[in-house]
Amino acid sequence: MSGLEMISTPTPQLKIMIEHYQKVLSPEEYQIFINDIKSTYIKFFSEIAAFPAGPERAILGHQLLTPLIEQGIAQVKPTCGRGCGTCCNYEVEITIDEGALLAALVSDGLMIDLKRLAIQASRKTKSEEWLQSSKNPDNRCVFLGDDQACQVYEFRPSICRKHVVNSNPQECGKTNGQITPILIPFAEIAMSAILGQPDNAKASLSKALSLALNNRPKQTFELEIESDLHQPNRAISPSV
């Protein structure tokens, strides 16, 4: 991306947005636009980098990202809702930090289908099985409850937070559905800053969770988050 080489792992949506504005803005306007993105990215990146890798940093990223998404969907109402669940049958990528956070919840007693998790984790990335969506019961997210609601909603990964549409939800389950995602620029910059942390690679949810569960230390302790970024300080207590 011209002028933004410092962003090591931009989201595809951020790339598309920048390419669009490079075509429609004057050189002077585009440079102002790029400088704004740079300063915002540096701010987000520095806030996240202040925390060590792991579940705590995943929660910090969520605290940074969620208010930005809420501001965006206040302007464009999404059609997604509780019980929709179609996107919970596709392969999604999460960060290693988020894999560790989800593993903490499982280790703390949350029941999931470990057999289905193993089936999903054994697949190659972007395998054809995922194209079957909900038609293949093995595609169902291990955190999706019988009521079609997320069992870890408060701790759901960043991709699940920012993926919202304002098209008919039924289109999401079609092979060539007419889907209209809601693009929230600041959320894309924040997500790029999360992905840009040098020790926070991304992988499919099943692979990242399986890796974290297999590498999990025996001891547990209470996880506390203290952040004045966008939300009041709060403490949670999955064992980590």
Give a written overview of the molecule.
With 240 residues, the protein is mainly α. The chain has one domain (12-215). 42% of the residues lie in helices and 7% in strands. It has helices at residues 12-24, 27-49, 55-73, 96-107, 114-122, 158-162, 185-195, 205-214, and strands spanning 93-95, 202-204, 222-225, 234-239. Strands 1-2 form a two-stranded antiparallel ribbon. A two-stranded antiparallel ribbon has the order 3-4. A hairpin with an 8-residue loop joins strand 3 (222-225) and strand 4 (234-239). The radius of gyration is 18 Å and the shape is globular.
Top keywords for this entry?
single chain; 240 residues; mainly alpha; two-stranded antiparallel ribbon
